[in-house]
Amino acid sequence: MSKNINLIPSLSLKAKHAIKVSLAMVLSYYVAMRFSWLSPSWVAISVAVISLGDIGQSLGKGVLRAKGTFLALLAGLFFIALFPQDRWLMLLSLSIFLFFVAYKMTGKQGQYTWFVTGFVTLMIVTAPVQSPADSFEFAAYRALETLAGIGIWTLISVFLWPRSNIDNLQKNGRRLVGAQQQLLDIYRSKLNDQETAVNFHTAHEEAIKTLAQFGQSVEAANFESLGVRRQFPYWQRRRELSQAYITILARLDAGLPDLHGINISLIMPTLEPLFTELDRLFTEELIASEEGVSVYPLQPVVLNLNKELIGDLDHFQRAAIEVLFNDLHRCTDFIKGALRPVDGMGATPMTMPHRAPKSVLSLDPDRVHSALFVVASLWVGMLLWIYLDPPGHIAWMQLLPTVALISSSPQNHSAEHY
After folding, report:
1. Which tens digits make up the pLDDT trace of 338-378?
2. pLDDT-based confidence at 227, cuts 50/70/90?
3. Packing angle, helices 40-50 and 13-34, rounded to 10
């Protein structure tokens, strides 16, 4: 009597991922030692850093790491070629370059690429070598082994139990919708002088973190299968509109003191119906994303102003009402655009938030402070090495700026950047 017995139990996602990482590590060390490369651990480190569960995230991070390593290769060899014997000119030039890298790293695009550019450049410049020729060999092997690690993991993740990023993307999208709805509920309660269980600042910080995680999933979608890549423009627009919505709500919350003493419900009699309709749209979007059903469109609610009552207000109060009126209109437009179904993308042009052109010389003070902190750590490491020469020697010139780069990075301040 024959029995169908499944001798191979089904593996969980964690078990499959562990097998893939283990296989990639073994292949990394085998290839590096088989060809006698300079440091086999560099290949393994590349695998460890980019070995995320989803294909899109793995490939995306691999591409960013490769770009950063290539930029560091050019920058490191450039500085060594110009200042092989003058350490002070080297320090000055490296400070300018590191300031630029740290400033770009704290921006909104290419954060991981610029982080890798910064710390790998420091590795090349401070490498314990005997001559500039050895520096070239060090830099070339660093780039080669990084690319090898990326290639090995890419092949394994694509052909062995591949995982799509679409589920993670939709999950983060639902979390973002929930965070946006919570922000609107808190602002609505504060506008009506009601107590809130959660502080607006806390909810705003959580929404920013959720938006960042959603943005990482969106970027990974560009490295996915064709079906997922076709949805990339929609998700990208949704991220931008969501960011604009969160920014405007924060501005509205900051302007609440200007509305003190004004009876908003009388001046804007349709404000509460508008809030109710927006809350319904958020709730239905969460249900629709879970069950795969259509979302009913936003019912038209005209935000009216009682001009007779506005005439009794002073100039500052009228200005505050005008700002509230215009920003609520923008919030409504952003919500309607951000929650548009994926299947309908491209059917109607989506209005993007207007962005005022920035001056070339316009710098963000917070990003400048972070960049100066990184540069200061470079000088501290250099002076420690020259005047105190503690154990580790020139490695202090690499260690301190790298730690500063990690602490200044907006991506969770974690060691996953390596």
Report:
1. 776 544 333 333 344 445 555 555 788 889 999 999 999 99
2. low
3. 160
Which residues, 6 or more positions from 260, have their beta carbon under 8 angstroms from its beta carbon?
Answer: none
CA distances, 12 to each of 4, 100, 188 (Å): 22, 44, 44
Per-residue three-class SS string for the chain: CCCCCCCCCCCCHHHHHHHHHHHHHHHHHHHHHHCCCCCHHHHHHHHHHHCCCCHHHHHHHHHHHHHHHHHHHHHHHHHHHHCCCCHHHHHHHHHHHHHHHHHHHCCCCCHHHHHHHHHHHHHHHCCCCCCHHHHHHHHHHHHHHHHHHHHHHHHHHHHCCCCCCHHHHHHHHHHHHHHHHHHHHHHHHHHCCCCCCCCHHHHHHHHHHHHHHHHHHHHHHCCCCHHHHHCHHHHHHHHHHHHHHHHHHHHHHHCHHHHCCCCHHHHCCCHHHHHHHHHHHHHHHHHHHHHCCCCCCCCCCCCCCCHHHHCCCCHHHHHHHHHHHHHHHHHHHHHHHHCCCHHHCCCCCCCCCCCCCCCCCCCCHHHHHHHHHHHHHHHHHHHHHHHHCCCCCCHHHHHHHHHHHHHHCCCCCCHHHC
d(CA 173, CA 235): 9
Q: Is the pLDDT of residue 119 over 60?
A: yes
390: number of Cβ within 10 Å: 9
55-95 pLDDT, tens digit per residue, is 777 888 888 899 999 999 999 999 998 888 888 899 999 99
CB under 8 Å to 335, separation ≥6 — which residues? 180, 245, 278, 281, 282, 298
Would you say 249 and 206 are in contact if contact means Cβ atoms under 8 Å apart?
Answer: no
Average pLDDT, the chain: 83
Domain segments of the chain as ranges: 15-163+361-417, 166-223+232-344
* 175 in Cβ contact with 210 (< 8 Å): yes
pTM attached to this predicted model: 0.71
Q: Which residues contact 351 (CB under 8 A, 6 or more apart)?
A: 333, 337
- The pLDDT of residue 9: 62
Contacts 24+ apart (CB under 8 A), 30-35: 31/148, 31/152, 32/145, 32/148
Find where tokens 């991220």 sit. 239
When pLDDT is cut at 50, 70 and 90, the band that residue 180 belongs to is very high
Residues in the chain: 418
